[in-house]
Amino acid sequence: MPSLTSVLGALDPTSDRAVFRQIADRLREAIDKGRFKEGDKLPSETELVEHFGVSRMTVRNALALLQQEGLAVSEHGKGVFVRPRPPVRRLASDRFARRHRDQGKSAFTVEAEAAGSRPEVDSLEVKEERPSQDIAARLGSPRKVLARRRRYLLDGRPVEFATSYLPLDLARDTPIAQPNPGPGGIYARLEEMGHRLDHFDEEIRARMPSPAEVRTLHLASGVPVIHLIRTAFDAEGRAVEVCDTVMAADAYVLSYQLPAT
Amino acid sequence: MPSLTSVLGALDPTSDRAVFRQIADRLREAIDKGRFKEGDKLPSETELVEHFGVSRMTVRNALALLQQEGLAVSEHGKGVFVRPRPPVRRLASDRFARRHRDQGKSAFTVEAEAAGSRPEVDSLEVKEERPSQDIAARLGSPRKVLARRRRYLLDGRPVEFATSYLPLDLARDTPIAQPNPGPGGIYARLEEMGHRLDHFDEEIRARMPSPAEVRTLHLASGVPVIHLIRTAFDAEGRAVEVCDTVMAADAYVLSYQLPAT
DNA sequence: GACGCATACTCGTATAGACGAGTGGGCAAG
DNA sequence: CTTGCCCACTCGTCTATACGAGTATGCGTC
Prior knowledge:
The structure is a homodimer of 261-residue chains.
Chain A: H1 4-8, H2 19-32, H3 45-52, H4 56-68, E1 72-75, E2 79-82, E3 89-91, H5 107-114, E4 119-129, H6 133-139, E5 145-154, E6 157-167, H7 168-171, H8 185-192, E7 197-207, H9 211-217, E8 225-234, E9 239-248, E10 252-259
Helix pairs in contact in A: 2-4, 3-4
The structure holds a DNA duplex (30 and 30 nucleotides).
């Protein structure tokens, strides 16, 4: 095992860069150069204190920086580790095409199994609710909506939390109000009910998660979320569903194809 | 001015929740309830120390939490402030449609002025380079590429940093290799040169910024970036351009329209 | 009025020490 | 061999203190 000095070097006492930033720089360089690989344990706080000759709080500041950048994660009682890059799920823009809608399983399940992962759906909840102002505006101001909430997991890891909202007059007493709406999901049911889908609008934002989102998605610090709001329109131009999705950003790549016309 | 106690309450000494988390919770609640509005100054560290009866490091831990969540920003010598939500730029999926390409100005400029903002383009750099492995793969493995780098600002604030890569055999000694490629931008020039554009692929990721990105985009802590990689394909199916864009996530909403077919 | 300076306030950085709590290995008792 | 405990090591939380550096304000001088 190479000495810490050869891996991390020493500080520059003449630099006006804060000591904890210099330490973070050294660790970042070492990670970038592959001296520490994904999942590797970084030197313990005590080792770094001794190596750089600084106090523990200074070392902790440096490690906190790396965690904010999403480069490292700490585990109580074990150490600080280079954050592993999880396998990402690619969402293609044709994922809601009609031809994908005839299977018996949900789009998430089919796609995940094809990618060799073990999919799960979790904490399913179907409720009638008063819509928030934003959701109401997107759906044409219905007084009440049907909300379908669920969490998706890949290989046991939660990756996405989604809520679908439908105007209650449209969804009440239909298979859509059942926990399992049947093959092809609610989009297939909507089309059977005469709402031929025309197009989807998707709005994408990225931000840091709220504490609640950190809990439900088990997010490490330094991992943002992608917030996607999809509105489905039928052939008459009516908004028939809004789906509000929060995804762990380190688990997703979104992919869209745009015509150049 | 209401007393701190009425705004923040007190700690629960029986709770096993860490004190600095409780303080962060109180501040977060107060912000959510509108007791502190966007841009408002939070109580100073000293005031919080006195109010909660804890040490300064504990207060700083609490404030650091809020900053990681993107809720607050600190300004040296001034205080800690509720982070203002900047105006966002909406990127529509038809922003590269041919009909938007006949103006004398760039798409960014036209759109920003329409939204009432003052657009700037910055640190323009045009160079011939050896492509990275990823860029090369996307462009069909050219030996060299033309790279066009630039930074975009709105009302003086940097919001986006983009690099376009084109195969050198396609772009050398054309207006595309000029700092200003002319009206309609490089897409108009590509079409004039016989590369009729057919479609674009866009890949979207979100992550925390690297230190370099923090500098060029002047990012506050707790602000992720959206990383967009767009590939332009001509009618023959050849990839003629890859544009790698890093955006301040708090300044953007991406919007796509998908057919339901 | 314009300028410069002192000052008081802000957050930033760093030290030293203490105790708590999760993890894992070794060792002794059964 | 298995069980259970202890211990060493890890990070988490918290206190107390000190000095540095950026900002704003007021005041006195020019």
